[in-house]
Amino acid sequence: MDFSRNAFSAIAVDDKVYIAGGRNGKNWGQVSSDVEIINVNTLTHNHSCLSQSKATNAVALKNDLIIFFTGYALDKSNFDIITHVPANDQ
Q: How many C-beta atoms surround the C-beta of residue 29 within 10 A?
């Protein structure tokens, strides 16, 4: 991971690991909206962003849609969806 964190959600899909939200490892009170996407074959990192900072949130996969639920967030009524792009479709 690019920075240490806890209380994050993570899911592995094909050759990528998606790590979202959580609390910053250097400042446990700061909640993150960062989504780090790690390609395990190339060890490259890309980033996306949740609509709001979240911690202890659940994550699910439906087809190629990765759904991040609210968890610990200010607005409990929204969730985020990131579309997974398989390696052979890039």
A: 6
